[in-house]
Amino acid sequence: MNILNYKLDTTNELLTSRIGLITPAHTIQVLDLSKTIDQHFPALGSNCALKASTFINTLVLSQHEGGECLDDVVHIAKDKALRLVTNQQVPTPQAIGTWLRRWVKTTKVLKPCERQINAP
User: Fold this and answer.
1) What per-residue confidence (pLDDT) applies to 30?
2) 5, 30, 64, 114: which has the fewest C-beta neighbours closer than 10 Å?
3) Cα separation, 17 vs 60, whole angstroms
4) What totals of helices (H) and strands (E) does the chain contain, helices first?
């Protein structure tokens, strides 16, 4: 059996294991989805400095990564190379949960779903 002689060098470059998230992040930027999202999602009237697109884009990237709960967005927040490419802030899981609860209460988005579920 031959053992290959590999030499590994160290680097100070930012590296990411989440290279698959660059494609959806780039698509979001190219299609200017953030602008469209911010136009169609109402302002919630809170003092939140983050726009709706920041929350939604973070959730989209988390889903593409295979995230199963809100706490999984921490992986995106800690990845400096990915944040450099996406060029956006990543809200905390608590902020996302608060935003989702506030948005659902404000827009009554679940009313049609509730009517369908409760229909005889």
Assistant:
1) 92
2) 5
3) 17
4) 7, 0
More confident residue, 114 or 22: 22
- Coil, strand or helix: which one is 55? helix
Q: What is the mean pLDDT of residues 90-104?
A: 88
Mean pLDDT, range 13-22, rounded to an integer: 84
Cα–Cα distance, 26 to 22 (Å, whole number): 6
Residue among 55, 73, 53 at smallest CA distance from 63:
73
Q: How far is it, in rounded angstroms, from Cα 38 to Cα 48?
A: 14
DSSP tag of 42: P
Residue spans per domain, the chain: 19-118
Here the tokens at position 58 are 């973070």
Q: What is the pLDDT of residues 22-73, one digit of tens each?
A: 899 989 999 999 999 888 876 766 666 788 899 999 999 999 999 999 999 9
Task: For residue 52, give the nearest of 88, 80, 21 by alpha carbon.
Answer: 88
73's tokens = 């967005």
User: What are the structure tokens assigned to 97, written together?
Assistant: 């949960």
> What is this structure's pTM?
0.75
